[in-house]
Amino acid sequence: MSRSVLVNLELIGLRAPARRLRPVAAGPFALLSLVVALLPIRPAGAWLAAVVACNVVPWLLGLREARPGRWRLSAKGLERLAADGSVLEAYALDRVEEFALTADDGMLTIFHRFGVTVAGSLADMGFDPLTFYVTARRLGITTHVIDGDRSVFEDESLPPEDDAPRALGRRAEQRLRDQEAALLAIVHEPRTAGRTDAGRLSTTATAWRRTTTVGLLVTLLSLTMVARIALGGGLEFGSRLIGGLWALAGGVALIAARRRRLAGAPLTWNITPSELRVRHATVGEWRVRADAVAAAVVGPGSAIDPVTGGPVADQTVVTVFGHRLEIIARLPAHGLDAFQLTHALDERGYHVITPDQGTVRPSEYGLAGLPEIFSRVPGGRLVVDDDGIGWADGAGDVILRMPRDRIGGMELLTVDGHAWLRMYDDEGDEFLAAPLSMLRISRTDLRDAARRVQLPITDAEYDAYVNATFYGSMTHVEAVTGPSPEKPKALPAAQLDVPPRTRALAYAVTATLCELVAVLGSLWLRVDLGGFWTALAWAAPSGLALGLAGAWLYDRNRPQLRVSASGISSVTRLGRTEWSVTRQALGGVGIDEAEAPRLVVWSPAGRVLRRVSFPPDLAELRRECERHGLPWGPPDAGHSAAPPPEL
């Protein structure tokens, strides 16, 4: 497609919303107020004015801050515009030979007629990789996305210029090409809404207004105490030090209150088959008509930082494309569950594209533990006999054997829908993890043969499935004849706690905060208690004792995760159950990457049932879920959990 046809095609970078009061260097000025307070300024009114001015000046400077400009990619080239629309920096289209974007750091490098120029970070320019890549290609500019950071240009490790995207060098470019192809494929497909009701998704703003109010109250208290010290008249060094600490505390509290108000503001999505309405309490509101939307791409992009007001890279942004592949809107989704958002959009008729859509995710369990002889013996298979586990050739002769006294345990589990075997030695170390299809033995044969010769083997999924089926069919029989005297043995429930390092860190932080309060209290009450060192002599041990005692009181009743074949629950160390999800209502347990790696529990329909606030050992949790037959990872919406393979 020629460049002359695409004269009106342009991509505008994001910039800060309407003018908002933003302090300039508020942190350094708050620290400066402590330094100024220590100076012997007379009279007291001048001292008070100087201390207060240090915390007021940043806000006055924010009033004079000019509104930033924006970047634009169009038929004229790549341009940086001022707030009034004038061109400050330009790279003409007829002089640009190639764009190169490094995937790791997002740096844009321009190869033009007279050399090479690093334009800067794509996120700082207000662009995101997908929209920039699509727009540049439609303008006829050769654009490559290189895996790695800017150093790959100096290392001369780039693939040849005429080489197609391949696994080494341009995996990120291949993903962008796949998304572009998906956009071209569905841009004119009709919309079919599965649901007509309104879907509402919002971030959880816990104690947002409360913490902001506390910060403002601390600021007012600090101002009152500084004024009280100044009106007292006697500005000795001790009084000036106390006043400076109060001024510093007030400045920090005001900065924290502002950041909490902006960063913790709720984000709300209202999704209907006719309109998308997104509202962020401190950034703005967006409304997009559904008939103008061709597709929505959910994935990494650029968004406005509520605190700084500038564009930043974000892992969850919804980029809305029109039917001519123009960018209609870039909607923020930071803090929302990308899995829930994707399904809510898809259910209401919006075509959704994700970066990893259609990508096969191989299991993390590799075949490194397979002995080399496994692949060298043609027709080999795994056999179980009284002497242990062996690998036999096509004639049935055992070539390699693992004696039964060296076998510490065996586990049968399901990985990516396939049955796997995991084996441990007598010291508890894993030495083999492989699919049963590679071992050429069925799950049933391996389980029955191992139990027949009394080898230690666990098949938690099979036991849970059989137990649930048995108890469901025998419910009406037990109502008449009473419960059976003998119950089949099941795996004991596993109780998972936070790692010891996290507990030790919590104790240390609590004790440190109490010691800090003790020091400040000794400074404040030194006159009444016979001097600073006398007051500190009893305040420091008391603060340490109170900190450790408070941490112990909280630690003795902390929640823990209990995993069993009947489900997953959160119980305290004293035995109280906070919440519980049964196996029938459980769709999956896994990590939510929307805002930060966080453990969540999904329903079979894909809805988030519980969010776990404390961080357990995730590797141990996954292992216990596999042992007890609980599914790991988000489920497929609308699909019920199937029995283990080969049942």
Largest pleated sheet? 4 strands, antiparallel
Described by the principal axes of the CA atoms, the overall outline is: globular
CATH class of the domain at 370-469: Mainly Beta
- Stretches where pLDDT is under 50 for at least 5 consecutive residues are 1-7, 164-168, 360-369, 637-641
Radius of gyration: 32 Å
Second CATH tier, the architecture of the domain at 370-469:
Roll
Indicate the proportion of strand residues: 25-35%
Summed over residues and divided by their number, the pLDDT gives a mean of 78
Number of H- or I-type helical stretches? 16
Query: What spatial order of strands do you see in the largest sheet?
Result: 1-2-3-4
Question: Which structural class do you get from the secondary structure elements?
Answer: alpha+beta
**Count of DSSP E strands?**
30
And the CATH topology of the domain at 370-469?
PH-domain like
Portion in helices: 25-40%
Distance between the termini: 56 Å
Entry keywords:
about 35% helix, disordered N terminus, alpha+beta, four-stranded mixed sheet, about 650 residues, four-stranded antiparallel sheet, PH-domain like
Structure in words:
The chain is of the alpha+beta class. Among the domains are: 265-353; 370-469, PH-domain like; 494-557, no CATH class; 559-628, PH-domain like (Roll), CATH 2.30.29. It has 16 helices and 30 strands. The strands form eight sheets. The protein has a four-stranded antiparallel β-sheet, with helices on one face. A four-stranded mixed β-sheet has the order 7-6-5-8. A four-stranded antiparallel β-sheet has the order 9-10-11-12, covered by helices on one side. A hairpin with a 2-residue loop joins β20 (407-415) and β21 (418-425). α1 packs antiparallel against α2 (44-63). It is globular. The two termini are 56 Å apart. Mean pLDDT is 78; it is low at 1-7, 164-168, 360-369 and 637-641. Keywords: Membrane, Transmembrane, Transmembrane helix. The chain crosses the membrane at residues 21-39, 45-63, 214-231, 237-257, 504-525, 531-554.
